[in-house]
Design goal:
4-stranded antiparallel sheet, 466 residues, Rossmann fold, binds S-adenosylmethionine, RCMT, transferase, Methyltr_RsmF_N, cytoplasm
């Protein structure tokens, strides 16, 4: 057991919290062996040896050991996401409330980078639903877009906005997930450095910021729409007290989530309004600290603004040559950004018009590529997308060594059997990206910014942090 010193006043501040067991909580932090868990992409399935299902998430699994994710091509193909198990509880909440909606839903993930909850939501929604994943901090947007590009869903938009910008879209969303920035105590076991930043004062500052974020974004939720609120903090100020503040400030009701007692999750109620909350303690569940709650807005939203299309009028002749590269190509809306062609399911056309005018969009639907004469210069997003019509492209099956060389953006020659031209590089039937095969060499088009560097830093950064 290693030396462990919690920040001053931390343990005292938790003493009266429901379900808090000081002895067991301290022991589990001393042992410091957090479980490794992954969530499988249901559309790009892959397998792991020796797994155990995570009971509150359909596609979540504990692994008995931590493999080198960096050197696993299936990771880069978007076959799974490395995610802390407690965070996957969103799956239980979302699937439960989704049953109340007959029509397609629009979902906002407000604090989305690096994309753990967004990729979970992308798998839980249907094709006619839409996910908007937003991140306020510009430097954190690329990791979010990369993770969602790998995941492959076409009905996803990534934005880079301040929560108050969503005031331009009153009553737009049916479901809003606010995975708020917090004091981070729930991550102490995995990230002991987080302990240095913890203080009672920081908890109060986080509480104020959480109220501000929720107040800024509240109008974008529809009447009878659901708000899912979560933190990775144990402090009541950031959790149950936020629920009481919401109930006092708005006409909003708490939703009780059905959980199985064997899961070890502690159900709590806020002091004044008895709003339901769900606490994860690492001595009771196989996972890190988390708090989650679900509420439903019971007041009319302001009238939605109307937005007129800014899309260029397109000549159907221009779109025709693109269609063969995509599955379900007649059900898509095509548009151009600069010289690049993009596509999103046609059902989201009006939503795209509103989003384009209200927000700063960083990614929408699938970037297909650009036409050079009659030829398509295909984009990496197309290769990763679930919409790609693979029959239209040559592909080369790489062995593990070649796949890693490709993902490093090294030279990959000796592809003797391959035909010249654009070709998909695959590993065990999973697409990794593009290469252009020339008679005497191979041009590697794997995006430079995604290439494997020799450390594991990139993969670790996929997991949620503050
Ligand atoms: C807990 S993390 C989100 C983790 C993410 N939901 C996931 O599952 O991968 C909180 C996010 O909120 C963002 N954030 C920080 N300050 C914010 C603010 N004032 N408004 C909105 N988001 C903020 C952070 O940049 C961070 O990406």
């Amino acid at each position: 057991m290693s030396e462990l010193k919690f920040p001053e006043h931390f343990i005292e501040s938790l003493k009266d919290q429901p379900g808090f067991d000081e002895l067991k909580f301290t022991e589990v932090h001393k042992k410091n062996n957090p479980p490794t868990s992954v969530r499988i992409n249901p559309n790009k399935k892959t397998g792991f040896a020796n797994t155990q299902p995570i009971p509150w998430c359909k596609e979540g699994y504990y692994l008995t050991e931590r493999p080198s994710f960096t050197f696993d091509p299936a990771f880069h193909a978007g076959c799974y996401y490395v995610q802390e198990a407690s965070s996957m509880f969103l799956d239980t909440i979302f699937r439960q409330i989704k049953r109340d909606y007959d029509a397609p839903v629009k979902v906002l993930d407000l604090c989305a980078a690096p994309g753990g909850k967004s990729t979970l939501l992308a798998s839980a929604i249907n094709n006619n639903d839409l996910l908007v994943a937003n991140e306020i901090i510009k430097t954190r947007v690329p990791i979010l877009t990369d993770n969602l590009t790998r995941w492959g869903n076409a009905n996803v938009v990534v934005t880079n906005n301040d929560p108050k910008d969503f005031g331009r879209l009153p009553g737009f969303f049916d479901v809003m997930v606010v995975d708020a920035p917090c004091s981070g105590s729930g991550m102490f076991r995995k990230d002991t450095a987080a302990m240095d930043e913890w203080s009672e004062n920081n908890v109060s500052l986080c509480h104020q910021r959480q109220e501000r974020i929720l107040a800024d974004v509240y109008t974008t939720l529809k009447e009878d729409g659901h708000l899912i609120y979560s933190t990775c903090s144990y402090s009541a100020e950031e959790n149950e007290q936020i629920l009481d503040w919401l109930c006092e400030t708005y006409n909003i009701e708490s939703v009780r989530v059905a959980i199985d007692p064997s899961w070890g999750i502690v159900e709590t109620q806020s002091e004044r309004h008895k709003a339901w909350g769900y606490r994860f303690y690492p001595d009771k569940v196989q996972g890190e600290g988390l708090f989650a709650a679900c509420l439903i807005k019971r007041e009319p939203a302001l009238n939605a603004s109307t937005y007129k299309s800014k899309f260029q009028k397109l000549n159907p002749k221009e779109i025709e040559p693109l269609k063969k590269y995509l599955l379900d190509s007649d059900s898509l809306h095509y548009f151009k950004v600069g010289d690049d062609w993009l596509a999103i399911p046609e059902v989201h056309r009006d939503s795209m018009i509103a989003l384009q005018q209200a927000l700063y969009i960083k990614k929408s639907g699938v970037r297909i590529g650009r036409m050079a004469g009659k030829d398509l210069l295909p984009d990496h997003e197309l290769a990763m997308s679930l919409l790609i019509n693979e029959d239209q492209f040559n592909s080369v099956a790489l062995d593990k060594e070649q796949a890693i060389a490709y993902l490093r953006r090294d030279n990959i020659n000796n592809l003797n059997t391959a035909k010249p031209g654009w070709s998909l590089m695959t590993f065990e039937n999973h697409i990794l990206g593009w290469a252009k095969l020339l008679p005497n060499r191979v041009n590697n088009y794997y995006p430079k910014e995604l290439r494997i560097l020799s450390t594991e830093a990139r993969i670790k950064s996929q997991e949620p942090r503050q």
